[in-house]
Amino acid sequence: MKLLHFIDWGIIASYLLFLIWIGIIKQKNQTKSQNNFILSGRNISLIGFIATLVTTWYGAILGIGENTLLYGFQTWFIFALPYYIFAIIYAIWVAPKIRERKFLSIPDQFYSCYGESSGIIAALIIIFLSSPAPYLLSLGILLKFLFGIELGFSLIISAFFSTVYIWNGGFTAVIKTDKLQFILMFSGFSLLFIFLWYQIGHPLEIIKNLPPKYVKPLGGNSLQYVLVWFFIAAWTFVDPGFYQRCAAAKNPVVAKKGILFAVFFWGIFDFLTMVCGLYAIGRVTDANALLSYPILAINILPFGFLGLFITGILATIMSTIDSLSLINSITFGRDILWRIEKKSTNSNPVLLIKKSIIITSFISLCLAFLLPSVIKLFYVLGSLFIPGLILPFIFTFSNDTSKVPKQLALKWITMPVVLSILWYSISQILNSNILDIEPFFPGMILSILFFIYIKYRTHHGN
User: Fold this and answer.
1) Phi-psi map region of 304: left, alpha, beta (phi>0 left; psi -120 to 50 alpha)
2) In 3-state terms, what secondary structure has residue 139?
3) Cβ(318)–Cβ(162) under 8 Å?
4) Alpha-carbon distance 455 to 54, whole Å?
5) What's the CA gap between 143 and 136, in Å, rounded?
6) What is the pTM of this model?
7) What are 111-150's pLDDT values in tens digits?
8) Would you say residue 94 lies in a domain?
9) I need a surface site. Which of 132, 161, 312, 445 has the fewest CB within 10 A?
């Protein structure tokens, strides 16, 4: 395996210096206004909206390569198709309503509809769901591979470089860096795709020669496993990244069009990553599945182009880490600490948010250490916590929330999560799922039963 050329290192270093410059040196301090720090003044243009939404969605890029190498086309059915479906529904139905309601966050909406306790619990769940831990792990593994350093040290470096520029710049810095990261991620994978085609052969020939397992939708896994991933994609409805961008858009039209354009660009990027991942089958060992893309690039791309690709990978991951780190710190600092301390509505929570960047980064590092698998982190967190938020959040857009007792709403949010966690914990002890059912389903079924009961109660009285 060849080493990176000094030109490649120069490209990577230039990118990292740009991040520091845009976030610390150029970006003015945004502490005077939480509206600016959290939502960039609610003035995001269509181009900025598309760039920041598209880039934020692909932090688990190494996991995509890993899954494609192991299961082939199944990756598209669990990490692409369901997200397109839910994103389009979100764009048409949810996005305009978010912009019109003018809340700053999902917990804000829960506070308004279900009360303080439900708002705090929703915030706690979002801290786990929006944790940058899987993406910190991805970046840490990549840095370990490139520099030959220990994983623990590489995780700390990852957390620092991915969050340092949001300290002063907040969401504005995220948007400005995402515009460059959008270009880098598409350029990097386009280059790899072109060189793979030129040096190895036409992608259709590669697909024709794949073993049958890799062209089947299930990829050798059970239908239930794939269905869980499909429903995890419903996380889109309570994704704080989606919510933040819709709330920050100039108007409801920008929010709606921005998501629809984002789906188009996701389709292009998924095509590039999927095909590149298929080229890795038989050329990268299963043991190195998580590093499929970097290994392919190192063996295929000439210097300079290799540096652009590695920078594109870094940009893809870091664009997600910075966004989720900011969201986590907003959720912890503003939606929990600031609320619990019962500060006046005129006080500014930005200082608490900044302090929370350090706290939530530490929590994410701990999660990455405890569960050092990108796909497993994503799967477990989604399975356990999504059932508690989706239906209660959707219900906040109805006119019946005032009729729901606060204690009942609190149970609706917490009990599905508790059930999924218990189901998962017992299954881990038994070393197999209870009744061969994934933990996601019991929690989601309980949430649906709550939903039916609440709908009946609000329409027929107590």
Assistant:
1) left
2) helix
3) yes
4) 35
5) 10
6) 0.87
7) 989 998 999 999 999 988 888 888 888 888 888 888 888 8
8) yes
9) 445
Question: For residue 71, how far is the Cα from the chain centroid?
Answer: 21
* Cβ-Cβ contacts under 8 Å for 307 (sequence gap 6 or more): 4, 5, 7, 8, 9, 10, 11, 12
Summarised one tens digit per residue, pLDDT across range 422-442 is: 999 999 888 888 888 888 889
Asked if 116 contacts 339 with a C-beta cutoff of 8 angstroms, the reply is: yes
State whether residue 281 is helix, strand or coil.
strand
- The Cα–Cα gap between 78 and 233 comes to 8
Print the domain residue range for 233.
6-373
pLDDT, tens only, 367-409: 777 766 666 767 787 788 889 999 999 999 887 777 889 999 9
Closest CA to 354 of 204, 163, 175: 163
In a domain, 412, yes or no: no
Q: CATH number, domain at 197?
A: 1.20.1730.10
State phi, psi for 268 to the nearest 5 degrees: -65, -45
Q: Assess contact for 131 and 274: CB atoms under 8 A.
A: no
Q: What per-residue string of b and e applies to 414-448 under the rule 16 or more CB within 10 Å gives b?
A: bbbbebbbebbeebeeeeebeeeebbbbbbbebbe
Helices (H), 95-251: 95-101, 106-114, 116-129, 133-147, 151-163, 166-200, 203-208, 223-232, 240-248
Q: Would you say residue 395 lies in a domain?
A: no
Overall number of domains in the chain:
1
Report residue 196 as tokens. 């793979």
pLDDT digits (tens, 9 = 90+) for 53-97: 999 888 889 889 988 999 999 999 988 999 999 999 999 999 998
| Residue 243 forms part of a structural domain | yes
* More reliable by pLDDT, 27 or 163: 163
Q: CA of 404: how far to CAs of 131, 408, 453, in Å?
A: 30, 7, 11
| DSSP line for 71-102 | HTTHHHHHHTHHHHHHHHHIIIIIHHHHHHHT
pLDDT of residue 1: 42
Residues in the chain: 462
Contact present, 61 and 138 (Cβ < 8 Å):
yes
